[in-house]
Amino acid sequence: MRRYPFVQLDVFTHTPLEGNQLAVFPDARGLTTEEMQRLARETNLSETTFIVPRPAEVEAEDGVQVRIFTVQEELPFAGHPTLGTAWLLQQQRGGQQVVLDLKVGRIPVEFTERDGRLMGEMRQRDPEFGAVHAAEEVARAVGVPLADVDTSLPIQTVSTGMAFTMVPLRSLEAIGRLQVDARGAMEFAQTHGGKFFYFVTREVVTTGATLHARMQFYNGEDPATGSAAGCCTAWAVRHGVLASEARGLIEQGLEIARPSFLHIRARRTADGATDVRVGGGVVETARGEYRLP
Fold first, then answer.
1. What is the CATH number of the domain that holds 212?
2. Is 47 a catalytic residue?
3. Which one of 18, 47, 59, 121 is the catalytic residue?
4. Up-side HSE of residue 41: CA atoms within 13 Å toward CB?
5. Residue 19 region, left (φ>0) first, then alpha (ψ -120 to 50), else beta?
6. Which of 64, 81, 134, 241 is the most buried (most CB within 10 A)?
7. Are residues 111 and 132 in the same domain?
8. 141 and 118, same structural domain?
9. Is the domain of 9 the same as that of 98?
10. Which H helix or E strand runs over 86?
11. pLDDT digits (tens, 9 = 90+) for 171-191
12. Are residues 157 and 113 in the same domain?
């Protein structure tokens, strides 16, 4: 039998059994793409990552190769898998920076101590700002009452490696009863260039938070969506929700008892934003081993 150890982490938290779960296979050499996909379905988490070790000189030049899978597909980029996988590599190898080689390219993750805790912060790709969408059309597609949409801010598709459509809602009450029409959302996204929807409101629960967020998709509800948080950061800086280079905080996962806290910042530019950063804590919760013929 071939043996493949894995480590399970909670990401965007320092508290076990909160944040977003992630399974990491530290050495995926020998696994086929199909086997990686089947293992991701077996873990049944929102994402599972597979580290493919390469010679030290290759990793020094190109970064550590990592592949990211949901239960249904391989992703070119995702936030909490990037942070969690980099954290595990930092624990194993040390150093202040870990560079991952993902399908979207090299993503650096910096580690620093903050209030006695290790924090990781990834720098995402510069954002690509897509179309601004009509509130009526989006509300109809995703099954949200039009009255719940905060029309003082634009509904816009943004990508920092994966495209999300930012949908601002008026209140915690509105976002609390969110129930996305998955089929309608997918049809709209496929037509308009987005991958998923990210719903936010400026009303928050946690003192000091900037935005309260939810993300529902085919695998249920995501406790923390680091890729969407990067898109949201760029959108927030561009549209005046967050000041240029100011530190912000997104709270997510509260409705599903998985509190997650994503630390964000970016720099405003003439046509949008750059230097998009998303960070947070990580904690290990379990270790195990899969045995395959």
1. 3.10.310.10
2. yes
3. 47
4. 7
5. left
6. 81
7. no
8. no
9. yes
10. helix 79-93
11. 999 999 999 999 999 999 888
12. no
Three-state secondary-structure class, residue 1: coil
Judgement on whether residues 136 and 89 belong to the same structural domain of the protein = no
Question: What pLDDT does residue 115 have?
Answer: 86
**Mean pLDDT of the region 210-229:** 94
Mutual orientation of helices 79-93 and 226-238 as an angle, nearest 10°?
Answer: 120
| Three-state secondary-structure class, residue 135 | helix
Q: According to the model, what pLDDT value does residue 224 have?
A: 98
Question: CA 135 to CA 190: how far, in whole Å?
Answer: 17
Same domain membership, residue 102 and residue 33:
yes
Q: What is the pLDDT of residue 196?
A: 94
Looking at the fold, whether 149 and 80 belong to one and the same domain comes out as no
Domain count, the chain: 2
Q: Rounded distance, CA 289 to CA 230, Å?
A: 33
111: β partners: 120
Residues 25-65 pLDDT 10s: 999 999 999 999 999 999 999 999 999 999 999 999 999 99
pLDDT at 285 over 90: yes
pTM here is: 0.95
Provide the pLDDT for residue 193.
85
Q: Which amino acid is at 99?
A: V
Say which residues have a Cβ less than 8 Å from residue 228's Cβ, sequence separation at least 6.
79, 162, 164, 196, 198, 213, 215
Write the Ramachandran bin of 118: left for phi over 0, alpha for psi from -120 to 50, otherwise beta.
Answer: beta
pLDDT digits (tens, 9 = 90+) for 100-152: 999 999 999 999 998 899 999 999 999 999 999 999 999 999 999 999 999 99
Q: Which amino acid is at 116?
A: G
| Whether the Cβ atoms of residue 249 and residue 260 lie closer than 8 Å to each other | no
Residues 167 and 104 reside in one and the same domain? no
